[in-house]
From TrEMBL, chains A, B, C:
Keyword Hydrolase: yes
UniProt cross-references to InterPro entries, sorted A to Z: Cytosol_ACT (IPR040170), HOTDOG_ACOT (IPR033120), HotDog_dom_sf (IPR029069), Thioestr_dom (IPR006683)
Alphabetical list of Gene3D superfamilies matching this protein: Hotdog Thioesterase
A GO MF label: carboxylic ester hydrolase activity
GO cellular component, as recorded: cytosol
Pfam family membership, one: 4HBT
GO biological process, one term: fatty acid catabolic process
Name of the protein described by the UniProt record: Acyl-CoA thioesterase 7
Region (Disordered), start-end ranges: 288-319
Record keywords, A-Z: Hydrolase, Serine esterase
Domain HotDog ACOT-type positions: 1-107, 163-277
Compositional bias segments (type: Basic and acidic residues): 292-302
Signal peptide: none
Length: 319, 319, 319
């Protein structure tokens, strides 16, 4: 769960006159891609984010951001968040995040505008960026197919089962949840997702839990003021010391004439359980019951092993 | 005073596709009564509500709601709020509340729309509902007559008098106090009313005080964005261990061309005084001075004795 | 930094049907100068404000306000803020503030309306008011000339230099920061200014710091919803036991077709450093490096000595 306190950007990098005010992973970007047409930047995706160290009350947060790649219709923004204890002067990297924005026309928010190309200082930057762009595009499409599913309540579930800890939250999108143009802030959705994931994790292991990382969050569709959103979380996998929780966000445009519930966002959160002294504790093992739960458990295990291999690969680089 | 912390609906009952997001007694309901015309549901009345157990920080709140009766122009909604300590798994009923909503046309908010009739599972449900509907209608009209009165400041009042503890709060209704349609949230008004009642009770007995119950709250008229509201509280009655405080809400449409102050809502709050250990303390006796104060004291005594009899009647049901 | 908690006006003086809801120094005034045209009152200036005693959590705040002078196009409002500990009944004067408002037409916010003249109870009140009006008008113009300057980051600054503690905060003006008419609340800007000043002071002396006073704050120009504001603070002067911090607010209308950054507000904050027991501590001496820093240090010293002389003049009135 988030512990954001106080936002200060000491040395904000201004790139191209573009501004990206950032508060933890809740970065916002609003920029006109050209002088001809006003636009709003819609958050489309947040890449996998690791929470390296917690933010504490009273600390000053520094967030800096820069554009690292542009495709025809999207902008990649890299955000770095550091925390500073202003009494001791100690500074720590809190997290790094990569966000993808899509510019929408303010006259017609269903129309995506073209992004003026960024100028790279090195040739390879463009190639590396294009690789990242293609990879996330593929992943986005995969998630979209996975999205039929809904979390259903179960009566009298057994401890350690998926049903036992699954939780849902209902939220009416009010004016203060929204940007200037009446769409819900990406950061509001992300906070609610983290809230639900935290409840699921606490219910499962009855201890103090913290977010260790968030898998890529895909925003499949816009959510508008007045919509009802249902944020559901269910545990998918446990390793010895971590829990993976899938969070689904469904939106219901209740006030429109033809309300039709749709999947607006989804992500996997990884939580760890901490002792009073802040050391990580073993986690009760999840007991998948249905075929679907067993399938999701195996998929979660796959993601876990892949991340573990990646981390070890980084720690001991191959020749 | 409210201690609401965290809102989660685990198993929200969806009735007719109507949604009632609820946060403590601040339930909201927005539903289209027919597909032909969009509407907003205005909170008209909250029935007497007992606060059975406090909500503590970190607990998860479950609020569920269902429609229990419909008249031609109003909807009765029953809300149940339970709190769950997710570390221990202990669940407690926090309160039950009955709310009446009236659907207003979004094209013309002064026009009340017709409510499509609810389908009852048992015949008696409709009859019981109609009784509740008639009873509250009568009570609403009575309160309206009582509403001329204004709380006036008194210089150098004596301790334990009504003047000594009476308090007023002035609030400009801002955008974040309002629903999507620019009317103040019922929950915002109720919180301010409870705030004032809490100040009156604290001034009277100089101890830690908590809300024990709230009498029916009638919302006589809508309050819009930009209006100034004055929330006044005065003690009306004390028993050995409880205080009754009348709270009046007056609205002033300052920005309109013909501002005319009107009574927007009123209710009686019952507070108790608690020791450090949470046990209820005796309360200093109120000293009514004027004829009006003495009359209100007797009326308060009547309500107190009636509620006491009702509670005892429930505890020891007659043959 | 502000410690505002709870706002209650027990005996609000209503003057002319004008209402000024006040929350600490964040007073707001909205009044129609005539029945013919609706207007919004824009905060133009806050006179020097001393923080006489802190507000503590749980205390009740009483704010009262009255109009003390009117020029053709502006209104002077005097606000008194007292805090009351409702358990002990002890009341303290927290601060007094003088605010200048300018009425703008709601049909065209760039048009300043005429203010209907106030009726004075004594003849001298008008003359004294006119003196205050002329004095602040002169000072406003002087500040406007001083306003070219921008705070630039410096790499690896030495402790106790201006560069070492200087800080900037970037904020996107969202809907909840604004009044009903889409302009940022004066109180929101003032809070952000105090936040930055507090960070600068903490970085400089690594202790618990509190605001002792705020020099006149001039609001040079309106800030609208959707603008980006940059709030920068730099230390200008230190005496043995106090620090003066200059705070500059720059606004950038990013979403307009011709965004042009402008100075929206500026002020000098005086902070003191406190020990755990709340006693004032000596402050590390500021080391000005550049010519500009040395010039600002001397100007700050001038303001400090002038205020000191004024306070001593008040303490020992001359014959």
């Amino acid at each position: 769960m988030n512990r954001i306190t106080y936002t200060v950007a000491k040395k904000p990098r201004q790139f191209w006159g573009c501004i990206s005010g950032a508060g933890g992973p809740q970065a916002r970007l609003t920029r006109p891609p050209s002088l001809q047409e006003r636009c709003v930047a819609a958050l489309a995706r947040v890449e996998r984010t690791d929470f390296l160290s917690p933010l504490c009350i009273g600390e000053v947060v520094h967030a800096s951001a820069e554009i690292t790649y542009t495709s025809k219709h999207s902008v990649e923004v890299q955000v770095n968040v550091t925390s500073e204890n202003i009494l001791t002067g100690v500074t720590k990297l809190t997290n790094k995040a990569t966000l993808w924005y899509v510019p929408l026309s303010l006259e017609d928010v269903d129309r995506v505008l073209e992004v003026p190309p960024v100028v790279y200082s090195r040739q390879e930057q463009e190639q590396e960026g294009r690789k990242r762009y293609e990879a996330q595009k593929l992943e986005r499409m995969e998630t979209k197919w996975r999205n039929g599913d809904i979390v259903q309540p179960v009566l009298n579930p057994e401890p350690n089962t998926v049903s036992y800890s699954q939780s849902s939250l209902i939220h009416l999108v009010g004016p203060s949840d929204c940007t200037l143009h009446g769409f819900v802030h990406g950061g509001v959705t992300m906070k609610l997702m983290d809230d639900v994931a935290g409840i699921v994790a606490t219910r499962h292991c009855k201890t103090n839990v913290v977010t260790a990382s968030v898998d890529a969050i895909n925003f499949h569709d816009k959510i508008k003021k007045g919509f009802i959103i249902t944020i559901s979380g269910r545990m998918t996998f446990t390793s010895n010391k971590s829990m993976e929780i899938e969070v689904l966000v469904d939106a219901n445009p209740v006030l429109t004439n033809t309300p039709k519930r749709y999947r607006a966002a989804s992500a996997f959160f990884t939580y760890v359980s901490l002792s009073q002294e802040g050391r990580s504790l073993p986690v009760p093992q999840l007991v998948p019951e249905t075929e679907d739960e067993k399938k999701r458990f195996e998929e979660g295990k796959g993601r876990y092993l892949q991340m573990k291999a990646k981390r070890q690969g980084k720690a001991e680089p191959q020749p």
